[in-house]
Specification:
With 284 residues, the chain is of the alpha/beta class. The chain is built from 10 helices and 7 strands. The chain has a 7-stranded mixed beta sheet, with helices on both faces. The chain is globular, with a radius of gyration of 21 Å.
Length: 284
């Protein structure tokens, strides 16, 4: 006689029920749990474009697929032209401009989406189960708010930003990057895995447009000092003054709407915030 289902079987049964019931039901976190940390240096089974031009964003943002204009010969184009168009990535009417690195369960994306309806926001998360939760959450929100056309501008994909960020975004494409409550990697030998470093800051500078902002928040004072130190030392960034920082509407959302932010708030812990502006490149 078979015993009770194990956790994996319960998870698979739940996912099957979700598919059968449609996307309108909000997913439950307990069926998407996995380890809190993932090793960014491991060889994960990831799919990523060789270059930004090869990335097909149409599955993530179907509401923003650009209208295809007919060629010089109208609808009777040659077979070669049709085949080329079919194999090329579908273009969007606008680019992704806001990225949440390590988006967790998607709280920031869900909060910012309605506030920035004309901007495409992307969450990038390395953990498989967490990524699937955010994707299912977004599907449910889109169905539930179809009449208001909300949440069509947010999406999530599984990616290792420490390795492949420039594979997804062109130079100066992004306007905002959020780094919310990243893994502090307390041990000194683990500091190389921190999401802020001299090397990674150069990649953030590459994909950010001049005037773009990196938003950071953590409840670990040592990590806050580390991030401030490394961004201040980088010639492409300057710290945003506190008065300007507090006037930024995204800062309050970042403090209060992420899952980690809510947990820190419940525990009455500290939240350390710092913003950094991408400077213009000097004339060469």
């Amino acid at each position: 006689m078979p015993g009770p289902p194990n956790k994996k079987q319960k998870r698979e049964s739940y996912r099957q029920a979700q598919r059968e019931n449609g996307a309108a039901h909000m997913p439950q976190k307990r069926f998407y749990r996995q380890r809190a940390h993932a090793n960014p240096f491991s060889d994960h089974n990831l799919i990523y474009p060789a270059r930004p031009e090869d990335m097909d964003w149409s599955a993530l943002f179907p509401a923003f697929i650009a209208d295809i204009q007919p060629g010089p010969s109208g609808t009777d184009g040659c077979a070669e032209t049709v085949a080329t168009a079919a194999s090329a990535p579908q273009k969007l009417s606008k680019d992704v401009e806001v990225v949440d690195i390590g988006c967790g369960f998607g709280g920031l994306l869900v909060a910012l989406g309605p506030l920035m309806p004309d901007t495409l926001l992307l969450g990038m998360e390395i953990r498989t189960q967490v990524t699937e939760f955010v994707q299912d959450r977004i599907k449910a929100l889109r169905v539930q708010n179809a009449d208001r056309k909300l949440y069509r501008n947010i999406a999530c994909l599984r990616a290792n930003t420490m390795k492949f960020l420039p594979n997804f975004f062109r130079k100066a494409q992004l306007a905002k990057i959020f780094i919310c409550f990243p893994d502090p990697h307390f041990k000194q030998r683990k500091h190389k895995a921190r999401i802020v470093s001299a090397t990674l800051n150069s990649e953030y500078a590459y994909v950010l447009k001049p005037g773009g902002i990196v938003y950071t928040i953590t409840d670990v004072e040592d990590l806050h000092g580390w991030m401030v130190q490394h961004f201040n030392a980088h010639p492409a960034f300057e710290r945003v003054p506190e008065e300007e920082q507090e006037a930024d509407a995204c800062v309050e959302v970042m403090r209060m709407e992420t899952e980690e932010g809510k947990k820190v708030e419940r525990n009455k812990g500290p939240k350390f915030v710092a913003l950094f502006r991408r400077l213009e490149d000097p004339p060469w």
